[in-house]
Amino acid sequence: MENIALIESFSEFKDDKLIDRVTLMAILEDVFRNALKKKYGEDDNFDIIVNPDKGDLEIWRNRIVVADGEVEDSNREISLSQARKIEPDFEVGEDVSEEVKLVDLGRRAILALRQNLISKIHEHDNTNIYKQFKDLEGEIYTAEVHHIRHRAIILLDDEGNEIVLPKDRQIPSDFFRKGENVRGIIESVELKGNKPTIIMSRTAPGFLEKLFEQEIPEVFDGLITIKKVVRVPGEKAKVAVDSYDDRIDPVGACVGMKGSRIHSIVRELGNENIDVINFTNNEQLFITRALSPAKITSIKMDEEAKTAEVMLKPEEVSKAIGRGGHNIRLAGQLTGYEIDVYREGVEEDVELKEFTDEIEDWVIAEFSKIGLDTAKAVLEQDVDDLVRRTDLEEETIKDVMAVLRSEFEE
Asked: SUPFAM superfamilies, from UniProt (predicted)?
């Protein structure tokens, strides 16, 4: 019973770790073999018998009986007089099996055994957690806010697993309190020093796609296919959907009556504006749909260069570009085309890149970010609005406008 009592003392924490007894006993055997190697130099002449049902473990050392005074390897050989203390009828050349009690290993060895066991069980747990969450990559997961840090929120799931939601994977309007449940997708799982690091994201396009699967039955059942998702998290998203069943209107099914079906998704994403678009292989038509709500007059496409020049009425241009240039940028990402917007009826205009000798490249890039690529496109804007939409100072914007105006006054 000596060994059983010691094993039970080693494994008293197993219930907290949710480790099954069979696995625990296998880890125990490995730990004890390491201890035997340290004490005796090797372990291959030892038999370790594990009985997981009883929680028992026996260690037997096997040695050969040699004549007194001829023992060369005390681990593998035993003198005849010592062997006969175990059993009086042993003879030279016979095998002797002697049980090793754990207490024989010494107090220090037993303490080391315990530490080694704890380490092995943690390693086992971490491997299992890594495998579990690796299989969940790209799936929606819910966990509770445990700790709020400056650069990340630390979440715990029902099993006490730690999940990290970094600041840059949070929607800008996200605000969570301790104890609150948070949904996101498991973006990545990595082993760092035997400890799994689980990263959650609420900004990945995949999160929006999985929300569609959860909230819209036709998407979950495969009747509607999500072809592509592009997002500016918390601001705007475009989702291209398709159906192989002509009887199903994929856009109508996803949005629902008065937006009833998509409402919960919008709310989850901090009121992100979601455009659901019918996918088509007709690239010209797809670009037209992607620039919604703007109405396009005509499109000139270069399929090799993947560029599209879109002509619109002046009042439609701001719709095509969208607030902060989000609409035109997302339309380009969705279709794979670089889209340039031109105003119908405006014959004379000059691209901003023609002014690089007077306007710095980074300033031109700031205007391009919000979809303003020509001189007149900039001149039609309000200065205060441009200050709000770009990272440019008011004085810089006024200087640029003065340069652009002079071009048309000459």
From this structure: Nucleic acid-binding proteins (SSF50249), Prokaryotic type KH domain (KH-domain type II) (SSF54814), Transcription factor NusA, N-terminal domain (SSF69705)
Sort 257 into a burial class: Cβ within 10 Å, 0-12 / 13-18 / 19+. Answer: exposed
pLDDT per residue over 208-226, tens digit each?
Answer: 999 999 999 999 999 999 9
Residue 26 burial (CB count, 10 A): 15
8 Å CB contact between 349 and 356: no
pLDDT (tens digit, 9 = 90+) per residue, 219-267?
Answer: 999 999 999 999 999 999 999 999 988 889 999 999 988 888 899 999 9
Tokens, residue 318: 């701001």
Q: Which two tokens stand for residue 54?
A: 């009883």
What are the structural domains, with CATH classification, of the chain? 2-131 (3.30.1480), 137-202 (2.40.50.140), 204-279 (3.30.300.20)
DSSP 212-228: HHHH-HHHHTTSEEEEE
Q: What Cα–Cα distance (Å) separates residue 318 from each residue in 21, 190, 294, 322, 382?
A: 67, 44, 8, 6, 12
| Residue 362 φ then ψ, to 5° | -65, -30
Q: Which amino acid is at 202?
A: R
**Measured distance CA(403)–CA(371) in Å, rounded:** 19
CB distance 330 to 237 below 8 Å? yes
Enter the pTM of the model. Answer: 0.63
Q: Which residue has the tokens 């973006």?
A: 187
Tell me: the pLDDT tens digits for 67-83? 988 888 888 888 988 88
For residue 241, what are the β-bridge partners? Answer: 226, 278
Structure tokens at 59: 């260690």
For the chain, the helix, strand and coil percentages under 3-state DSSP, each to the nearest 5: 45, 25, 30
